[in-house]
From TrEMBL:
<keyword id="KW-0808">Transferase</keyword>
<dbReference type="InterPro" id="IPR003501">
    <property type="entry name" value="PTS_EIIB_2/3"/>
</dbReference>
<dbReference type="InterPro" id="IPR013011">
    <property type="entry name" value="PTS_EIIB_2"/>
</dbReference>
<protein>
    <submittedName>
        <fullName>PTS galactitol transporter subunit IIB</fullName>
    </submittedName>
</protein>
<dbReference type="GO" id="GO:0008982">
    <property type="term" value="F:protein-N(PI)-phosphohistidine-sugar phosphotransferase activity"/>
</dbReference>
<feature type="domain" description="PTS EIIB type-2">
    <location>
        <begin position="4"/>
        <end position="94"/>
    </location>
</feature>
<dbReference type="GO" id="GO:0009401">
    <property type="term" value="P:phosphoenolpyruvate-dependent sugar phosphotransferase system"/>
</dbReference>
<dbReference type="InterPro" id="IPR036095">
    <property type="entry name" value="PTS_EIIB-like_sf"/>
</dbReference>
<dbReference type="Pfam" id="PF02302">
    <property type="entry name" value="PTS_IIB"/>
</dbReference>
Length: 94
């Protein structure tokens, strides 16, 4: 399986994306899934989206990016996080 590239974004590329990055790293390690993770702010997504297989976001993204994006807010709130992890795992194993 090819190593997938994942971009984790939030409004500023600092606060919530850092929390999601930590949780995502632990999840991928536990599931033995290899992926390259990078962090950025939402304003960079249009320029960078083509370089990534998956985008994990805690904020709204442009409509043209929706197919590549998984909403990561449940990873922050804890409500619905298992569904998000399942979707991440499924997309990275495609």
């Amino acid at each position: 399986m090819n190593k997938k590239k994942v971009l984790v974004i939030c409004g500023t590329g600092v606060a919530t994306s850092t929390i999601v990055m930590q949780k995502l790293k632990a999840f991928l390690r536990d599931k033995d899934i290899e992926a390259t993770l990078e962090q950025s702010k939402v304003s960079d997504v249009l320029n960078k989206a083509g370089q990534y297989d998956l985008i994990i976001s805690t904020t709204a993204v442009p409509p043209s990016m929706v197919e590549k994006v998984i909403n990561a807010v449940p990873l922050l709130t804890g409500i619905g996080k298992e569904q998000v992890y399942d979707e991440i795992e499924a997309r990275l194993k495609m």
